[in-house]
Amino acid sequence: MENIIFLEEISFTIAFIAYTLAALSFIVLFAFKKEIIGKFATIITTVGFGIHTLAIVFRVIESGRLPFSNQFEFATSFTWGIVLCYLVLHYIYKYTGVGAFVMPLAFLVMGYASVLPKDIRPLMPALQSNWLYVHVGTAVISYGAFAVAAGLSAMYLLGTKKDGFRSSYLPDLEACDYMSYRVIAFGYVMLTLVIVTGAIWAKSAWSRYWAWDPKETWSLITWLIYSVYLHLRFHRGWKGKAAAWFCVIGFICVIFTFIGVNTLLPGIHSYR
Amino acid sequence: MKKLWSLITSLKLAIFLLVIIAVYSIIGTVLPQGLASEFYLENYSTFGRVITVLQFDDIYHSWIYVSLLTLFVINLAGCTFKILPGQVRRFDKDYYPSVRKDSENLYNDEVEIKSLVDKLKRKRYKVFRDGNGYMMSKNRIGYLGSSITHLGIVIILVGSFFGGLFAFSGFFNLLPGDVRAFNDHGFAVRLDDFYMEFRDNKSIEQYYSEVTVVKPSGDERQETMWVNKPMKVNGIDFYQTSYGWASRLVIKNKDGEILDMKYLRNNESHFFQSEHLTILLYGYYPDMVVTSAGEPLSMSEKEDNPHYAVVLYHFNDHVGSYITEPGQTIEYGDYLIEFEESRLYTGITFRRDFGYVFVVIGSFIMLLGLLVSFYLYPKFIVIKEQEIYTITRQNSWGFNYQIKRMIEDSIKREDK
């Protein structure tokens, strides 16, 4: 048992280092435009992701459940979701430079995880349900997608220069804009699932499917903001800068729902 | 009138409502909700008036919030009815949207049109020959995505509103042996036992209420409830919600004759009439330690070191504070006061709310609508002489990219 805890910690640390290096190399790639750095950054991200997955597997072995029940566990899963969404996007569209905007986010959330208490606590009675896995699992993916979308939007907002390097390593601005839209659409479907499964679970644990708990309310607020984004985009042709800013605001809401609500607005949902 | 209707069914209003509902919701998470109006007047000075007048103190049930949601439902339904005929018309197999002026022509000399068309046919595109060219379409169902989503949301909001209006709910405590009757619903709930399961570190693994549902016919049904495992009787759901300790107070005279006996919960007091003595059970500590500040504290709910904290008052004068073990007596004049035998009682919430069914059905429809919108969006490809265009509204860049890649792949393969 001790061994597994040790293995978990060491793989978590290695993954954190890998993400840090990846974030740095992506930024270096952005500045120096050397092809080899891009390859290195991608490889180290992929390897880091593998080791991070291992860390999570070790934790699952230790605790006998998925790591979804306190702030540390969610933060590490959230990072995992971000990197997963990024890698999927990367291997489909092959635009290496996107990492320069997504990996720093992964680094930040992983850094947040690393300062949180990592002890494994048994599940409190309210969390002992299979809905935990569906509800939090979809949240991990949804938040990961929103993070990637925010990275793409940040890239849109910063990236205006056009040269040879850009076109092969970074999606052109139009692609950037569309990708962030599609990733948001995916995250939005997932967020809807998070809220729906949460309602079903709340009904069976707390008697009410909706009780205006701060976490519930903030997930609704996030959902409303992305709803506005989708409508403006589809019907009013909001693209480019306006849409990108909206996407960044949406992600700030996601982060607030994740961290802010737990620390500033305690309710029945504040698992620390 | 016409103008008003077009405003009510406008996207502008929809966006405005979404934003304003979000802002209102934020206020509700920042301001404490449901407290007495004095609290707001004292703590927020002038803004306190605003809070109470605009009902920010119970924002989610205020008439303003309910009106906003009602207007939102009307707006959503109105918008949907307005766009629905157009969406249905696009189902016609002869309908093709026109190519946008800034569309990219994907044609190049190496494209084998015939094999591309075959490939797209295999991908379930409906193909029409149009003179020398082709018109292809797929997923016309996607036009309905937004309407399906909106229908789901309307069902959720209307269902939960009326469900909440007619909901029947409450909370009760039972000691083992106690019965709570639901006469209007033709049954009663008796608590047979309540217990907790502990882990090695004395933390609570789970709470269990063993109950018997008794019907007037004499039918009995036994069930065990725990957190996340509610019980359903005649459409009413029962939930294990809380628990507490009730401790037996016994007052005797010096001869050992019992004069008074009562179960008290923590922080509950008993007035012993003949001596004008108030006995307050400050708390029962099943696993007591004394903190550095001298306060008693229970390390867990496991009865490992049980103690009572008792305070006596004569009229309003403090007589004394005591920490006693079970059965240990406090002498007061000619009387002996003791606490012994603490029992757990359970706290059960019950609720019947038909709105839930609508919420589940509505959610399912909404999710289906979103999937149709985002992943089964309508796709069109127009091939003319030396021209290939893709047309879609939902994901024009992605779809264009996909078809472009398909064309490039087919060329590369032929090169090999």
Give an account of the 3D structure.
The complex is a heterodimer of chains A (272) and B (416). Chain A is an all-alpha fold. Chain A contains nine helices and no strands. In chain A, helix 3 runs antiparallel to helix 4, helix 4 (99-114) crosses helix 5 and helix 5 packs across helix 9 (240-264). The radius of gyration of chain A is 19 Å and the shape is flat. The model of chain A has no long low-confidence stretch (mean pLDDT 86). By secondary structure, chain B is α+β, with helices and mostly antiparallel strands. In chain B, a hairpin with a 4-residue loop joins strand 9 and strand 10. Chain B has helices at 2-8, 11-30, 37-43, 45-53, 63-89, 113-122, 145-165, 355-375, 396-415; strands spanning 126-130, 133-138, 168-174, 179-182, 187-198, 204-214, 220-226, 231-233, 236-253, 258-265, 268-272, 277-285, 288-290, 296-298, 307-314, 317-324, 329-332, 335-352, 379-384, 387-391. The two termini of chain B are 68 Å apart. Helices cover 34% and strands 36% of the residues of chain B. Chain B is built from nine helices and 20 strands. In chain B, helix 5 (63-89) packs antiparallel against helix 7 (145-165) and helix 7 runs antiparallel to helix 8 (355-375). At the A-B interface, helix 7 and helix 8 of A face helix 2, strand 6, strand 9, strand 18 and helix 8 of B.
